[in-house]
Write a structure and sequence with these properties.
CATH architecture: 3-Layer(aba) Sandwich
Distance between the termini: 21 Å
Strand order of the largest sheet: 1-2-3-4-5-7-6
CATH superfamily: Gcn5-related N-acetyltransferase (GNAT)
Oligomer: single chain
Low-confidence stretches: none
């Protein structure tokens, strides 16, 4: 099982995982990207936010973050598990750690967005107790987005 540690979203390990996730997204949704598309960036953490890394033998194999939406809700973002570590429970472990942090920060609900082609991610979120909701925020009107919510239950 992976160890989960708090990390700086601007650290080299975080940026490396972000790039791997972006490469996968571009391959999965080629219609959304072209060669001039800007690569995503992580931003510094604000109050009541977290960024975590999953480590196996000290090597980063997954990540996730918690971003504040308002006083009651936070968004799970940057969820990613390296392909060689999928199916091993790392995603569930990351979600559990993010939910613990959401509880500590006083959030009542966590929400997230994923793409409709990401079947494994959708199954993970549903198995963890997330329920599909209408798109929220920037995802309203995005035909690729599938959104979920879960009451913080820690």
């Amino acid at each position: 099982m992976a160890d989960v540690v708090d990390a700086d979203p601007l650290s080299p390990a975080a940026i490396k995982l972000l790039r791997l996730a972006a490469v996968e997204a571009r391959a999965l949704y080629p219609e959304l990207f072209n060669e001039a598309s800007v690569w995503p960036v992580n931003t510094p953490l604000r109050d009541r936010e977290a960024y975590v890394l999953a480590l196996a033998d000290g090597n980063p194999i997954g990540c996730g973050s918690l971003r504040s939406l308002d006083t009651a809700r936070a968004e799970v973002r940057r969820m990613f598990v390296a392909s060689h570590a999928r199916g091993s429970g790392v995603g569930k472990t990351l979600l559990g750690e993010l939910e613990i942090r959401a509880h500590r920060f006083g959030y009542q609900e966590i929400v997230l967005e994923t793409g409709y082609k990401q079947d494994r991610a959708i199954r993970l979120y549903e198995a963890y107790g997330f329920k599909q909701i209408p798109p929220f925020g920037a995802y309203v009107g995005d035909p690729v987005s599938v959104c979920f919510a879960k009451r913080v239950a820690i």
